[in-house]
Amino acid sequence: MWLVLCDANDASATLVFQALRVRGIAPLELITADALALAEEWEHRIEGDAASVRVRLGDGRTFEGGALRGVLNRLFTAPTWHWRAAAKADQEYVQQELIAFFLSWLNALPCPVINRPTPQGLCGRWRSEAEWVCLAQRAGLPVAPYRASSFDRIDEMRGEKRLLVPGASTRSVIVVNGTVAGTSVPDELKGACAAFAKEAETELIGLDFIDGAAGSWTFVGANPMPDLRWGGPALIDAVVEALAMREQVPA
Amino acid sequence: MILLCGIPSEPPIAMVAKALEERGARYVFFNQRQFANAAISFEILNGSPTGSLQIDGVSYRLEDIVGVYTRLMDYRRLPELDGAPEGSDLYRYCAALNDVLARWSEICAARVVNRMAPMGSNSSKPYQAQLIRRYGFYVPATLITNSPEAVLAFRERHKRIIYKSISGVRSIVQTFEDADIARFPALRWCPTQFQQYVEGYDVRVHVVGEKVFATKINSTATDYRYARTQAGEAAELTAMEIPDNVAQGCINLAAGLGLAFAGIDLKFAPEGEVYCFEVNPSPGYSYFEANSGQPIAQAVADYLIGAA
Does the ipTM exceed 0.90? Predict the structure, then answer.
């Protein structure tokens, strides 16, 4: 069985799910974060050298981690709306508990997982703009000048950016398992995009660029949960290939 | 130049400051409570940050800072922000300063004790347990479930079990008793972590780079950190020697997690197995040093100046 894990409103994950089904990836299930948060039964074990997970959802669907063949992981957080009547401190506690739980059981999956979870993000590592810029410069990408000061009126924790001007149009490039997909990516950038993804140790990653003078592209950010609709057929091919590859138990 | 970040009176950072003074090492203190007297700015060139830090009117080149020890608290709880609205200039400046300082410390070339990203493994104990197993330590049999039947079967198999948080929040270890069965209906709403109880004695190992300090803990409490509450008396701490292979395993574990300084919680079982429960990435070592006399602060100071 293959899984696509995502939020209920993740349109691009749904699109990839449908494309994977058309390409014959079966059995294939789409499971939402809400369904996982409200699962009827969870059993996640760590014993000896083995870690396992078994879950039975509210609709009766059941999966065991060891029986999975591949997972497209687009989980951003663990929903806690069913705790909304609780005190705020309890809601925050449950949120931390569920994220910690999701991180552990996702990490225990022995099959290919795109992306594997990290403590900095359930679907891959989110980094600060400064870290992305360092990686981009080292990978040889053209990068907008980055300066940060304590006098800036920018709060990255609220999603505010230093490099990306609000309203600016961007172009996205998606790298999956070394394959560069996206609209009209200049050939001279493809190698650097692949090098960036490798440096970022993230199998599926989106890079954002703005148009510079004379049509040049300038890197302004990246994230491990890009809009997959930008990738086209090349992206679907790369996802299918990556999900079909077997790998060893991660821990 | 060494940079210390935190509140000067807090014992762990105060002891490192004293050790740096004893070594004649130059250091500058970013007193988090006096954030209004500090500023930082940097840019990134060729994949590395360059810039300056101002504290009390004195400017320091960030490139000259070779070591950073950070014990920053959640700035939102600073007394200086009491009553300050989130949108106020004071609040926003404090947030920006802490944020830019954190961004820089994550990418700078200095020895940082510790960077934030590697500290993240401690945010999920079962996740960290999966990493710990790679370094040759036993980890307790663990079950995370929302099924009462699974809990009872787990207890039947292991006889005595404990429960504790999955994340780092509200992390107090408690023995599972018959009376807890009455709380099973709440289990439905949030999977909970249960573990086999491991007999033996607790050992806290502090690793600083390649240096190892092992401290034996004598206590009958389920969680020795709360020994006064759980067992009626404080835990007794004494320095001890541990086998070379265990010490090397601790060094490898800390390095593997990317931690220059770590507090590793071990339990030596009666049959000789060495269990590892957790790796603390920001250990409050002063409690152990005060009771055991082990020179942990000096080791941290040596690490920061590059002498270790």
Answer: yes
